[in-house]
Amino acid sequence: MIMDITSLILALFIVYCFCQCLSSANNTITSGQYITDPHTLISPNSVFKLGFFSPQNSSNRYLGIWYLSDSNVIWVANRNQPLKTSSSGTVQISEDGNLVVLDSNKRVVWSSNVTHNIATNSTAKLLETGNLVLIDDATGESMWESFRHPCHALVPKMKLSITQKTYEKVRITSWRSPSDPSLGYYSATLERPNIPEVFYWINETQPYYRTGPWNGQIFIGSPQMSRGYLYGWNMMNDEDDGTVYLSYNLPSQSYFAVMTLNPQGHPTIEWWRDRKLVWREVLQGNSCDRYGHCGAFGSCNWQSSPICNCLSGYKPKYVEEWNRKNWTSGCVRSEPLQCGEQTNGSEVSKDGFLRLENMKVSDFVQRLDCLEDECRAQCLENCSCVAYAYDNGIGCMVWSGDLIDIQKFSSGGIDLYIRVPPSESELEKHSDKRRHKIILIPVGITIGMVALAGCVCLSRKWTAKSIGKINSQRQGMNEDQKQVKLNDHLPFFSFEELVNATNNFHSANELGKGGFGSVYKGQLKDGHEIAVKRLSKTSGQGLEECMNEVLVISRLQHRNLVRLLGCCIEQEENMLVYEYMPNKSLDVILFDPAKKQDLDWPKRFNIIEGISRGLLYLHRDSRIKIIHRDLKVSNILLDGELNPKISDFGMAKIFGGNDMQANTRRVVGTFGYMPPEYAFQGLVSEKLDVFGFGVLLLEIISGRKISSCFDHDQSLSLLGFAWKLWNEKDIQSLIDPEISNPNNVNDIVRCIHIGLLCSQELAKERPLMATVVSMLNSEIVDLPPPLNPAFIKRQIVSCADSSQQNHITQSINNVTVTGIQGR
After folding, report:
1. Under a CB-based contact definition with an 8 Å cutoff, are residues 625 and 654 in contact?
2. pLDDT given at position 158
3. How many domains would you assign to the chain?
4. Strand partners, 101
5. Residues 482, 495: one domain?
6. Spatial contact of 369 and 378, defined as CB atoms under 8 Å apart
7. What are the alphabetically sorted keywords of the record (predicted)?
8. Among the three residues 523, 548, 580, which one is the final residue of a domain in this structure?
9. Which of 256, 462, 611, 682 lies at a 20 to 30 A Cα distance from 185?
10. Does residue 144 belong to any structural domain of this protein?
11. Highest-scoring range by mean pLDDT, 76-80, 348-352, 517-521, 732-736
12. 460 in a domain, yes or no?
C-alpha cells in the first residue's frame, strides 16, 4: 500500500515537471521551457493558438499561429524550411535569447534572429491579438514581434509600414500554393510615404496593382473601400523617423477580420462575428486593374469596347500594335502643348484642361501646398505639368511625367484634369457653348409658340376647339423630342430609316410582343442589326413608358444591361432602338423542351450571375440609383454567347442618392414577380427587385414558369412548391432534369437557398443585391436559413396557357395593381 502511494506521488511529480516544461503559463515560453508537436500555446482570450500544423494535402509540419482552427493560419515561422517528420518539432528559447524552432536532430530550422540588444533571459508570449512577442525579462521591452514580420495575412493591430529615410518596408507575401506556405510569387507593400498607397507585386519587382493615394479615409483608386466591411483602416505617421503605418481596427471585440494574399495574388477578406465566419470575399479585379494596362497616357474603362483609349489630345504610339489590342506602348501627344500665352491678332490663346470624372489618378503623383483654386494655376504655370487633381483629404496633386495606370470607374474615384493645347481647349469651350445653345433655342421657340398661340386664341376663338387637339398632339410630340435631346443627346432615327430597316415592320421580322407593342428585327444601311420596339398607338401608357425608358437607360452602361442605340418620336410613332440580341429572351429558350437542352448548369449559372451583377449596378454602382420594378424572365435578353442583358426599363423608378424607399400610388408589374409590400402598399425599394430576382432564380433552376400549377389541387405557386420541397428535404425534385447532375447538385441547392432568401415574405429579411452577389460567389460561406416566401398559395387558381397574357387589376387600399401573368 505504501509503495502504491509512493508511485502515485512520483507520477504526479513527473506530470508536474512535464507541465512546467511546457509552460509556466498557457500563453508563454520562458528560458528553459519548450513546447513540442502537437502541443500549443493559447492566447488569453482563447481564440489564437501557436503550434505545429500541416497544410491541406501536405505532411510537412510548420510552426504557425491560427485563429480558432489551423485552417485559418495567419502566420508561419519556418515557411521555407518545413519539418518532414510529424511530432519532431520543438519551440524554445535559445541560449542567446532568441526564439527558435528545432527539428528532431536539434538543428535550428528557424530563429527570430535578433542580433541587436539581445537579452539572454527572454520570454515568448502569445497575445490576445494573435501577436507573438519576444520580451526582454529585465526591461519588459519587446525585442521581436511576429506582427513586424508578417507572412501572407494582415489582422487587426498588425501594421504595414514604410520608413521614408531608409525605405525599409514591412511586406506580406503569398503562399506558393494552398499546400505550400513557402514564399510565393505575390506580395504587397506600402509605398510612396509622402502620399502613401499600397502596391501589389509579382516577384517583388513588377507592380500589378495599386490602390491609389490615401486621402485620410480611403484609397481613392479603390472604390470597393466604400463597402461597409472595409471601413476601419487607419494611416499613422511617426514624425521622428518618417515611418508611415497602415493598420486595421475592429468595430468591437465581437468581430474579427483577416485579409490574406492568396497564392493567385488576390486579396481575400474574411469576416467573423462571435467567432463564426459570416463573410468571405476574394477581391478579383479585371484587366483595367492591372498596373499600366493601357500604357502611358492611356485610360482603361472596363465597361467600354475596346477597354483602352488614349486620353484627349493623344494618339497611339504604335497604331498597328494598338489596333491589335497590344496597348502597353501607350499614347503620345497628337499636338504639342503651347505653354504660356500666345497672341494671334487680338486673340490670346493658352493651354487648358479637360476634366475626366470618376478616375483613378496616375502613379507618381506630387503634392503641392495650395488650395483648390490655386492648384490649376500652379499646374498651368509649370510647362512640365501635364495634369492635376484635387482631393479634400490630400490637397493639390500634380503630375509632370508620363500618366500611367489611369482608370475610369462607373462610380468612385475623383476628377482628373488633363492639360490640353489651345485647340483642344477651344473645342471644349465651343462644345459648352453649343450645349447652351441647344438648350436656349428650343426654349425660345417654345416661348414664341406660346405667344403666337395666345394671339391665335384671342383673334380666332371659334377655331380653337377644332384645331386644339391636333396642335396639342404635335406640340406634345415636339416637347417629348426636345426633352430627350436636352437631357440625353440620344441619337434619333427617322421613321423612314426604321421602316426600311424592318421591311415596313413586316410580320416575318417580328421578334415578339410586349405589353405596349411589338419588337422587330431590323438592319441599318451599314449592315448593323437592331431591335426596334414599336409602341402601340392604342396603349394609353405607351408614350409615358417610352419617355421613362429613354431617360433611364440612356444614362446607363453595363455589360448586363441592354444598350439603347436611339429612338424615334415622329408621325405619332414612338419607337426605341436597341442592340439586337440573337437569342431573344430567356423564356424563349428556358421553357422550350428542345431549346432548353442548350442551357446546361454552367450557362444557367452565368445567366444568374450576370443578372445579379446588372441589378447591383442599377442599385449601387451607377450614377443614379434605379429600381427596375418589372424584373421577369421575358425581360432578360440573351446575346450570341447567352450572356444576359436586363431590358425593358419603362417602369423603372429613379431614386435620390440617399433614398432607400418610396411610395407609389401606381403599382405596375407582373403577377408572381411582385412582393407583397409593393403589390398591396405601393412600397418601392431595392428589395422589390431582389424578390423578382429570387423568383427568376427558381425559374432558371426548375425550368418552370412562376405561373405553373403544383400540388394535387393546383393550389401551390412555384414559390410554395419550392418551399414545400425545401422543408421536406426533397429539393432534388425541384431541379430541372436537364441540369440534374451529381457534380452540380451542391451549387444548385445553394442557389435555391439564395432564391428562397430573396423571395421571403418580409422585405427586411431579404438580402441586398450586394450580399446576393457575394452569396453567389461563395464569398459568404454560411447562409442563414430562409423564412417562408410570399404568395405560397396561388392567387389565380386557373392554370391557363401561360402564353396568354392575363391582365389583372386589383384595388387594394386604393392602390391599382396591374399585373401580367408570366410568359
Report:
1. yes
2. 95
3. 6
4. 91, 110
5. no
6. no
7. ATP-binding, Cell membrane, Disulfide bond, Glycoprotein, Kinase, Membrane, Nucleotide-binding, Serine/threonine-protein kinase, Signal, Transferase
8. 580
9. 256
10. yes
11. 76-80
12. yes
Element (H, E) at 374: helix 372-381
- Determine the Cα–Cα distance for residues 644 and 795; give it in Å rounded to an integer: 29
Q: Are residues 502 and 556 in the same domain?
A: yes
Cis peptide, bond prior to residue 38, ω within 30 of zero: yes
Same domain, 393 and 451: no
Asked if 630 is an active-site residue, the reply is yes
Do residues 531 and 454 both lie within one domain? no
Annotated active-site residue in 289, 630, 648, 689: 630
Whether omega for the bond prior to residue 306 falls within 30 degrees of 0, making it cis, is yes
- Sequence-ordered alpha helix ranges (H) in 460-510: 461-488, 495-501
Please check whether residues 259 and 299 belong to one and the same domain.
no
Mean pLDDT (the chain, rounded): 81
Which residues carry a binding-site annotation for ATP?
533
On the question of pLDDT at 482 being above 60, the answer is no
For the cut 70, the answer to whether the pLDDT of residue 204 exceeds it is yes
Query: Which range, of 51-60, 118-127, 468-477, 489-498, averages the lowest pLDDT?
Result: 468-477
Q: Are residues 661 and 808 in the same domain?
A: yes
pLDDT in tens, 163-198: 988 889 999 999 999 999 999 999 999 999 999 999
pLDDT at 147 over 60: yes
Judge whether 106 lies within some domain: yes
- Encode pLDDT of 678-700 as tens digits: 877 788 899 999 999 999 999 99
Report how far residue 654's alpha carbon sits from residue 312's, in angstroms, rounded to the nearest whole number: 32
Domain match, 743 and 607 both: yes
Which residue did the predictor score with more confidence, 432 or 380? 380
**Structural contact between residues 329 and 364, judged by C-beta atoms closer than 8 angstroms:** no
Question: What are 165's three cell numbers?
Answer: 529615410
Number of helices and strands in the chain (H, E): 14, 49
Residue from 190, 196, 143, 185 nearest 171 by CA: 190
Question: Residue 116 corresponds to which cell in the numbers above?
Answer: 541587436
Q: What is the pTM of this model?
A: 0.55
Instruction: Give the range of the structural domain holding residue 50, as residue numbers without chain letter.
Output: 23-149
For cell 452540380, the residue is 744
**H-type helices in 732-803, by residue range?**
745-758, 769-776
Given 108, 125, 149, the domain boundary residue is 149
Chain segment 568-612, per-residue pLDDT in tens: 887 678 888 989 999 989 999 999 988 998 899 999 999 999 999
CATH code for the domain in which residue 705 is found: 1.10.510.10
What tens digit of pLDDT does each residue of 381-394 get? 999 999 999 998 99
Q: Assess whether pLDDT exceeds 80 at residue 518.
A: yes
Per the listing, cell 419588337 goes with: 519
Closest CA to 46 of 126, 125, 150: 126
- 66-75 long-range contacts (CB < 8 A, ≥24 apart) are 67/130, 67/155, 67/256, 67/258, 67/272, 68/272, 68/275, 72/258, 72/270, 73/151, 73/153, 73/181, 74/130, 74/151, 74/153, 74/155, 74/258, 74/260, 75/130, 75/132, 75/146, 75/150, 75/151, 75/153
Three cell numbers, residue 520? 422587330
Judge if 722 and 759 occupy the same domain.
Answer: yes
Residues marked as binding?
533
